[in-house]
Amino acid sequence: QSNPTYLVRCQDGKTGRDLGRWVLRRQPFGILLPSAHAVDREYMFQLALGTKQVPVPRVLALCEDRKVIGSSFYLMEVVDGPIYKDPRLPQCDAERRTRVYRELARALAGLHSVDASRLDGIPRGRAKTRKAGGASYGLRTLRRWRKQYLASCRAVREEPLENMMFLAEHLERTAPEGRAADRECVLHGDFRLDNLVCDPHTDEVRAILDWELATVGTADQGLADVAYCCLAYYLPPTVLAIQTLTKFSDETGGIALDVPEGVPSIRDFLACYLSHRKDCESSMVAEGADELVRSPRWRWFVQLALFRVAAILAGVGSRAKAGNASAANAGLVGSVGVVSGVIDTAIDLIEVSDCREGSSKFEVLKHKCRVFCARVGRIEPELVKRASTDQRWSPHPSIDRLKSLAKRTGLWNAFLTPDLCELARSALEKAGVRMDEQQWSRLLGPILSNRQYAELAEMMGRYPHAPEVFNCSAPDTGNMEVLARHGTPEQCKRWLLPLLEGDIRSCFAMTEPDVASSDATNVASTVSWEGDRVLVSGKKWWITGAMHPKCEVCLFLGREASSSPQGARSSPKGAQHGNHTIVVLPMKSQGLRVVRPLDVFGTQDPPHGHAEVHFDSVAVPAKGSVIFGRGRGFEVAQSRLGPGRLHHCARAIGVAERALEMAFARAASRVAFGAPIARKGGFLRDLALRRTELDQSRLLVHAAAEMLDEEEAKRGGAPPTRSRRVRMCLAQAKVVVPRACLAAVDFAMQVHGAAGVSMQETVLPHLWAALRTLRIADGPDDVHLGTISKLEARTQLSKL
Predict the structure, then answer these.
(1) DSSP letter at 220?
(2) Cα angle 168, 448, 509; round to 5
(3) Is the pLDDT of residue 171 over 60?
(4) Helix (H, G, I), strand (E, B) or coil at 74
């Protein structure tokens, strides 16, 4: 609630003739928060600035005697002219829009050019910067609105939003260093288009209004006003209380500018503002608009402005829940979804390079991953729709656009652990690849532990297309690990580098139609040697990724032609797993035929698909085509499957969490037998069970990831899956997690009723199919249960 404002008219009692018009602005009645609604502050700033050619209404009198009208008030002259509420300026042509924004920038620059140290009678607050011994204006603003936000949460007994508190902590840690040498400057605190009265003919600003939040800071902190003035360029279109210049992009799911002709770009607006700053010695003016708009300093002040708006909206929502909001739509205006959307917009602006030493880079990455995955979710309906068209086998253009954006988030190739990054870089450098540190950083990603990546993989799992956007989808991640751990420098340069860059896709050919492929010793496809060539023959199916038009390389697992499955079975234990070889095959090799796509519960999962592939005496050079040497295929395949299984499990938990959210939303909106389904005992019991199972699953995944990290640190590049305890924990996760997650999706389908089984109505059938398949993919449950039982039996026998 702002300070109530009235037009006061004085008329001749006899003739009715107007004798004068003034504006009265008063404090609201009732109990007020300390320092809030400070009409005396407004009066003093306008009185002082009126002598400095700043366009403010001329103030006439301040009355702090509450007995007069019930609260403090002041009078000022009326300033006639239009006040533009909508930043799109729909009533103006393009030329006038440009003129209005130019005058807006000029008025703000004029205000900031005033030397506040020469103004008498204004409240100065704490103008010192941190360097001078106190908190800067930006930090004081942050702390004030954080305090207000927490108070609004306490008022309705709600927990603060996690992303809100994260942003507050991030802003606190990364606040720009104050420039103590800068002169004092008047900061308006609420400078925006609809707080200005313009000339109806020239659009020159005739009056700047609403000085309640005005204060004195240093000139460099003037960016706080500029950023707040530019909020319309950043706020998501879901914000109802403020008009914006944005929309959601149909191509990327992110926020895109929707600026009418004549409204300047952010860069042009900043250039206009800087050109009118009279304090040319300011480092900000010297910085220039191009540098400024890309600077961490600008991003920080925009994030601060968004945080402040979110806190204000949360206060509106809090009052609505408490039943004392003045607007009928206050609950919608200040809803959790709207507030969270504003904060996520601010988080999306954070760059990893903004993090200072000692700050949590991983916390930033987690929130950025969540926000970016939500983009994928917004365009998911379009991606699903394409899967049933004639274009389904070509990637949707939005995926490539999202990949380009994802590379700038710092999350590209996030699955790469420290030892994999070291191995990959070493191999590529030996092959002659040269990059500077920034290029290596972009290529190899954030270099996270398995434990950290498990959290990100869970977020990616919520949306089936999200892992690919970050170059973290199977089977590419496993194939990249194989090449990094076991490939030659030449193989890494030819295949690993373009895979890391996202330029190509890959597949892994192991499963066969004619044998039980869960027992790898049954593999019947052959690898034979003929002079300086390797010949590959056999049939494979369920080869994920082989249908993708960018799939250029296949890692083929076959047995040596000199051995046989029967012979291997009678061989000594070590020998039966030494008959397999992995061969690298270009997909364009003669004799390699992608025969057909295979469906999963009626869907083909385009564009990557799952294919039947025939290898008819495919010949490749013996040199450089074999991974890790002859007879090492089983060993290589196991090192590939270990982390991959964990990635699948982590993503499955994300799927299940999404399903639970859908289930509860549906149950809360549906009434059956006189009450919402969400209040029914049966629903609540099942919800509790699903929550318990998912939390148990997550703990198991995290424990397995930590074991992988420990073994990787010990073994110095050797596959961590050789460890018995790692194999045990991975097998346990692979059995427990898909079952728990499948139960969660099945629960959501049951709650949705008929809609839950229709791919036309919800995503649930697709999620269910993927999870049901996971109980077979990368080894069926019985194989993993066999591993667990063998390892446990050994442990128990050792105790006898």
Answers:
(1) G
(2) 135
(3) yes
(4) strand
Q: How far is CA 40 from the centre of its chain?
A: 43
Whether cis (ω within 30° of 0) applies to the bond prior to 607 is: yes
Report the C-alpha gap between 776 and 796 in whole angstroms: 29
Neighbours of 576 (CB within 10 A): 18
What separation in angstroms does the CA of 758 have from each of 461, 728, 743, 765, 766? 21, 38, 18, 7, 9
Report H helices in 544-594: 565-570, 573-576
Distance in angstroms (rounded) separating the CA atoms of residues 160 and 339: 11
> Tokens 């013996």 sit at which residue?
622
Which tokens belong to 724?
Answer: 């018995």
Q: Helices 450-461 and 681-715, interaxial angle, to 10°?
A: 140
Q: How far is CA 696 from CA 460, 700, 726, 786, in A?
A: 20, 6, 18, 21
**Which residue in the block uniquely carries the two structure tokens 């001749």?**
12
Average model confidence (pLDDT) across the chain: 91
**Neighbour tally for 673: CB within 10 Å:** 6
pLDDT tens for 506-550 read 999 999 999 999 888 899 999 999 999 999 999 999 999 999 999
Q: Are 456 and 414 in contact (CB under 8 A)?
A: yes
CA distance 704 to 702: 5
Task: Give the list of residues 6+ apart from residue 340 with CB closer than 8 angstroms, or none.
Answer: 161, 163, 164
Q: Determine the Cα–Cα distance for residues 568 and 290; give it in Å rounded to an integer.
A: 68
- What are 76's strand-pairing partners? 23, 59
End-to-end Cα distance, the chain: 76
d(CA 533, CA 622): 5
**Integer Cα distance of 658 and 459 in angstroms:** 10
User: In the chain, what's the furthest Cα-to-Cα distance?
Assistant: 120
CA angle 516, 521, 527 (to 5 degrees): 105
Alpha-helical segments (H) within 289-396: 289-293, 296-322, 330-333, 336-349, 361-386
Helix (H) or strand (E) run with residue 22 in it: strand 18-26
Q: Nearest-CA neighbor of 414 among 456, 374, 375, 373? A: 456
555-561: average pLDDT: 95
Q: Please give the Cα distance from 152 to 31 (Å, whole number).
A: 16
CA distance 158 to 219: 38
Alpha-carbon distance values, 20 to 4, 9, 63 (Å): 20, 6, 19
DSSP category for residue 494: I
Helix 361-386 vs helix 162-174: crossing angle, to nearest 10: 130
Task: Decide: residue 639, CB within 10 A, 0-12 exposed, 13-18 middle, 19+ buried.
Answer: buried
* Per-residue tokens: 402: 């999202």
* Entry pTM: 0.90
What residues contact residue 181 under an 8 Å CB cut-off, 6+ apart?
A: none
Tokens of 636: 């290589």
Residue carrying structure tokens 């403010």: 56
H helices of 492-621, where? 497-501, 565-570, 573-576
Taking residue 612's Cβ as centre, other Cβ atoms within 10 Å add up to 18
Q: What is the pLDDT of residues 245-284, one digit of tens each?
A: 999 998 899 999 999 999 999 999 999 999 998 765 455 6
Query: Can you tell me the distance from the alpha carbon of 713 to that of 68, in angstroms, rounded to the nearest whole number?
Result: 76
Phi, psi of 526 (to 5 degrees): -120, 150
Q: What is the per-residue DSSP string for 593-628? A: EEEEE--BTTB--TTT-EEEEEEEEEEEESTTTEES
Show the tokens assigned to 21. 């018009």
CA distance 402 to 468: 10
Place of tokens 């995944």: 701
Q: What three-state secondary structure class fits 663?
A: helix
Residue with tokens 């656009």: 401
Q: Which amino acid is at 675?
A: A
Confidence of residue 568 (pLDDT cuts 50, 70, 90): very low
Instruction: List the one residue out of 462, 495, 677 whose CA is nearest residue 584.
Output: 495
